[in-house]
Amino acid sequence: MAKGRLLKLRVPVSLPWLQIYSALMILFLFLPIIMIILFSFNSAFTGMFPLQGFTLRWYQEALKKTILRVAFRNSVYIASLTSLLSGFLGTMAGFGLTRYHFRLKGVLTTFLTIPMSLPTLLIGVSLLSFWAFLSVPRSLNTVIVGHAVYCVPYVVLVVVSRLENFDRTIEEAACDLGAAPLQTFRHITFPLIRSSIIGAMILVFAQSFDMFVISFFNIGPGSTLPMVIWSMMRVGISPALNALAVLIFIPSVTMLIIANRFTEISFEI
Amino acid sequence: MIRESIRRNLNPIAQLGPLTTFMIIFFGFPILVFFIYSFWTVQGWTIVRQWSLGNYFHAVASPVYRMLILRSVFIGLFTATLSVVVVYPLAYTLAFKIRRYRDLILFILMISLFSNYLVRIYAWRSILSTNGLVSVILMALGLADEPNSYLLYDWTGVVVTLLNVYLPFATLPIYSALLNIERSLTEAARDLGASPLRAFYEVTLPLSTSGVRVAFLFIFLLTAGDFVTPELVGGSGGRMIGNAIATQFGIVFNWPLGSAFAFTTILVIFLLLVAFLVGGRLLRPRR
Fold it and tell me: Using alpha carbons only, what angle is made at residue B93 by residues B87 and B94, rounded to the nearest 5 degrees?
């Protein structure tokens, strides 16, 4: 360490270019979100510069739309069940993948985690073909299945990475002291990894809540919040849409902050 | 004894069985069904289970669709290359140069990953529009004479938007690959007299290629198959194959043709990746 510092001194002191560059990248990343927030309070009707003045009118207009209430309820229903389903299936599979060694484990891991790296269009449209092929009527439940296919990999990855850092001697100690496997799981293992699972499930909730493409192709009658936003976007630029965007941005960020408290979010792929 | 061994062998099946079954039924089968559809035909408003390769011929022979497929693959490759190049210094800074704010910045990346992506794409429509941010900045810099919707409704606007939307997806794999590099290796290179630039070029960069490869593949697949971005900011000049697929599955109701579009694109991407792999093997210098 001391050596590194000495070496640094020999380099002529200049601006911290890397840090400046990174700050600019973060700014670029946040540009759309900043713009949405800015224009949601701007009194002009169009999203253009110069800004006109402060108003809360667009928020009032956004909250007045009644379709939003039904859509919001559908979104919460879908996200809750997706989260439960993914949490259950993903946790069990996470255990299986870390605690046992078998042939083709790598292939199975890839198969179980690949949907998150595929375009949602492919998942959405192929599932639509599947329902049609079997004449299954589409509904909110068919959407849940689609969301779970896409979201389960997140849970699997979080649980696997938690269990890989798990000190198994604690379990052995419980076993030596006479605990049955199920007792060990209930009183030792589960309480230790619970927060990671909850964190992953909150992430899935947030993901599902924001998901558009899979819902769009697999929903029957009815609509979700992102679908309402989509239909508003197709019509043109509306300032109420900016306000609505900020409003649905709030729960996602809140959930992410909560999830971050429960688990170290990492995506080591 | 026997019961014990049965229970041991049952456990992995009990734990992995449910998700594996779920994925086979709701992910594996659907892709298969989707593929089978591409060989069927549409007569009137019904899908006829009559096998033919006609849809594929249509996808390849029609100049419009051939162009859309090639453009999507090109946009995917271009965005993936650009993302990796643009993001590498950020990931490097995160891994090696910043200690104090690292967690905060990672959390900020996650926030943008989890904020609604429709909304972020929509924001770009306003940023790129006449009198939008890009136009205002270009005028202020004297690079443009009049307000206009530069980049909007063109493939360049699509690339800028895709780059922005998928940026966190590119950063995280490269960052975690860099984080796994043993510091002692670069220090050894420096001790042996390598300049910082040479140590980076000969040690750090080669050791991070796995992360770069994952990031590239991720961005390539996700952007080539995107349809929301071209729909909102692409206009006619930025249309991609995703739009054509979505249209066939929507108002046009020619699912078999849409499916053929998808699998032709997948085939092109697959062949390209194989070519990269073989080319990379042949070009790699032997040491």
Answer: 90
